[in-house]
Amino acid sequence: MERVKMAEAESLETAAEHERILREIESTDTACIGPTLRSVYDGEEHGRFMEKLETRIRNHDREIEKMCNFHYQGFVDSITELLKVRGEAQKLKNQVTDTNRKLQHEGKELVIAMEELKQCRLQQRNISATVDKLMLCLPVLEMYSKLRDQMKTKRHYPALKTLEHLEHTYLPQVSHYRFCKVMVDNIPKLREEIKDVSMSDLKDFLESIRKHSDKIGETAMKQAQQQRNLDNIILQQPRIGSKRKSKKEAYTIFDTEIESTSPKSEQDSGILDVEDEEDDEEVPGAQDLVDFSPVYRCLHIYSVLGARETFENYYRKQRRKQARLVLQPPSNMHETLDGYRKYFNQIVGFFVVEDHILHTTQGLVNRAYIDELWEMALSKTIAALRTHSSYCSDPNLVLDLKNLIVLFADTLQVYGFPVNQLFDMLLEIRDQYSETLLKKWSGIFRNILDSDNYSPIPVTSEEMYKKVIGQFPFQDAELEKQPFPKKFPFSEFVPKVYNQIKEFIYACLKFSEDLHLSSTEVDDMIRKSTNLLLTRTLSNSLQNVIKRKNIGLTELVQIIINTTHLEKSCKYLEEFITNITNVLPETVHTTKLYGTTTFKDARHAAEEEIYTNLNQKIDQFLQLADYDWMTGDLGSKASDYLVDLIAFLRSTFAVFTHLPGKVAQTACMSACKHLATSLMQLLLEAEVRQLTLGALQQFNLDVRECEQFARSGPVPGFQEDTLQLAFIDLRQLLDLFIQWDWSTYLADYGQPTCKYLRVNPVTALTLLEKISREMKDTSRKNNMFAQFRKNERDKQKLIDTVAKQLRGLISSHHS
């Protein structure tokens, strides 16, 4: 039962579902019926649904048939009425056709006229449209034509402005025309052409300023020199007047006006207005030598094109290259001052142009870039000057170079460049200048000393006397009282050397000018250089003269006198330096002159040379000595060579009257000692193995002649018998042998009161052996085959005994 109930329930649900689907099919649009049918086929009762569907279709057919049967008579009536209307419509059609044919025939001419009017109106409209379009195109073409004209006339900045207006204002209005597209395509090419042409102008400008840097620098340095001269005049003669602005002053030669052809925007985009100088005198400047407009135009063009940074980098790179070329000095720059001047002119011209660009453009170059270039230039310039100035040996050229460097520094300082390192380098060149001065004055002193006659200066009139006094500070009351003619004690080289020292001081002072040094620094520099002149240059010159081989005693004596007077003049040199530097010698850091030491050293060297020269002369006379050591004859006079020697010494010491007393006395004592020593060596030399008492007597006469010379007082100032003490050794030795006083010698030897205190046992033994050999040889010759004679044998025994005792003294002394 349950199954039957369940089957019935399911059949009812299916029937309801089929009914719903059928209603949905009836009410739904045909295009959307698919999902409904799908639901039928998805189920399992589609057979039953089809049956339902067939039943519903049959019901609808019956209803349609009923409706048609109900309206059939009305349909037939409507068809009958329609057939009647068709006939009437045909008539109407025929009438309309006839009327149309008549109308067409009658309005044929009007149609033709209307067609003609239509064509005219169309042409009129086309002409009007064409005029309108041409009115739009003509300004574009005019602007393009203007652009080409500006390009031809090389007015590139206006051309660029025209191009900008053309691109942004005119071309957008006619952008649909083909010629407009051609123009748009040409615009980048035109911009590149303008860039290329302006860059070419810039290259020409760079080449122009490279060529004119020398002239620009020369003009700037001339103006700096004129300004300095004017400042000096103002300092000397102060005057009241309006002061010019320092900035204006610095740019007097480089203020320039923008060309009238340049557009106003060109000034606005990179050119600073420069102060007018209506009241200032026009002077040739950078704008007169170089046209700066290309760089301004190129800067504006690149700025407008958005490539300003590219332009700035290119400009700076090219100027750096030019700077390196300018800073490369020529290899022969040191030969002439013009070489240095051209080198400086180029550097000044380069930086003056850069400074002008800095102050007339906005950002093309900046202060950091200028400072970097200046640092490089400063280091290279200083290195080049150090190298080339070291080759210079002419002090005048070094002085001119210093003045040129000062002018170079002052010129650049006006433009704000730091130049302290240049002045520091000038202090280095100052040392080199001092060295070249010393070399020059070395030659001057050498010529003065070589040309001097080493004789006192004779004067025959008051005028000549005052002339010498004017050249050299000398005061001598006794000389002034003497009548003319008279002589100064010194020779001509004294005033000449004194004046040359003053000239040297003047030369040193010239270098210190314009170096911004204090008076103390200038004074210290002059004193140090003068000390070098005195202690090195003049001292060496004097030493060379003194050590000259052919120098005579007279010349040496005169040199001593001259150096004495030069030594006294040192205080006047001190006063001279004080007067020109205005620095008192009592100042704490003031350097003292070493002239006194220099002249003392020269005088001492001359004195030593006199002593040496005298001894050499004595040796030359002694070489003429020809003693016959074996003679038995007793002489009656001194040897000829010794007489000549004594005469020479007397005449020589007579010249020493002007020398200081101690010098003459020392020379005389030295000569006597050397003579005594040489005579002693002559007597004891090993080659003389034998000598007779007769030869000893002759030698005694020569010594007596020497003693007589010493007693005569050839040089005043010696105490009594002081000079004779030089011959005391010879005298005691000769007295011992001539008097044969051996008993006294041997008995008193070693006692302070010994008569022969200065006789050395070794010397006595040497001389005794020479006499002994002679006696033995003589006895052998006289008694070839016999015994010695008694007195000779006794004497020989005595000699042997004395010799033995002398050997004993010698051995005891050594022990």
TrEMBL record:
Keywords: Coiled coil, Exocytosis, Transport. Residues 257-280 are annotated as: Disordered. GO terms for biological process: Golgi to plasma membrane transport; intracellular protein transport; vesicle tethering involved in exocytosis. Residues 421-770 form the Exocyst complex subunit EXOC6/Sec15 C-terminal domain. Transmembrane segments: none annotated. Pfam families: EXOC6_Sec15_N (PF20651), Sec15_C (PF04091). GO terms for cellular component: exocyst; plasma membrane. Residues 82-109 form a coiled coil. Residues 52-221 form the Exocyst complex component EXOC6/Sec15 N-terminal domain. Signal peptide: none annotated. The keyword Transport applies. The keyword Protein biosynthesis does not apply. InterPro entries: EXOC6/Sec15, EXOC6/Sec15_C, EXOC6/Sec15_C_dom1, EXOC6_Sec15_N, EXOC6PINT-1/Sec15/Tip20_C_dom2. Belongs to the SEC15 family. Component of the exocyst complex involved in the docking of exocytic vesicles with fusion sites on the plasma membrane. This is Exocyst complex component.
